[in-house]
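In response to reviewer comment 3 from the previous cycle, which asked for concrete evidence that the modeling workflow produces usable outputs, we include below a single protein chain processed end to end. The sequence was submitted unchanged, and the resulting structure tokens are shown without manual editing.
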Amino acid sequence: MALMVEKTGKTVEDAINEALEELGITSDEAIIEVLDEGGAGGVLGIGRRLAKVRVSLDEENIHPNLTSDEAPVYYGDDEFTEEPESAEEAETTAYVAAIMSGIGIHGKISSYREDETLHIEISGQDVGAAIGHHGETLDAIQYLATLVANRNTESRLRVSVDIGGYRRRRESTLISMAERSAEKVARSGRAFKMEPMNPAERRIVHSALQNFPGVSTHSEGEEPERCVVITPAEA
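The workflow returned the following structure tokens.
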């Protein structure tokens, strides 16, 4: 099952870029279909038809060396690439594996501990279906995994779940978007409101622009529409 969006824009390139940003992928990882190249309107361009594209995740490029016949299913500890350090880690990783298996997604799962964070990484051909729009399904899986990891312990264990490298790609996309927007704000002197993001994504943007010259950032709005606003720095 592919992760897909359709977008319109003044040009085909604008529509493609917007779709890639929403999916958090690069053009090399995408299947791009031009549905409508758009067209000129009447006098002064009034009535111009927007370009329209369909962009989907090319799942074969998530793990190009793994064929569907070779892909192991998420069953049991045999698919763990590293031995969990504690019962909580083993239980949490097995729980995520069970979710993947339950929704019919095949691939490979690995986990490792870094300080107080348990990282669980999933790879395979058909994993895009478990990411969801802007990572919403992935965030839900991560939230449930965090509950499992902390239900029988007094210490707080943070859980980070990544599927097909989505979080790394999304972080890179957010940083690029933030820096381009900051450059526009610094040039124009006008504030810019970014798209709504979850708290983790807003932290990425704030951090990326913390030392960006000529701008400052803050968040405004209520969840789930809360967003980062980039403003010209005070003189």
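The longest strand covers residues 30-36. We consider this sufficient to address the reviewer's concern, and the full set will be provided in the supplementary archive.
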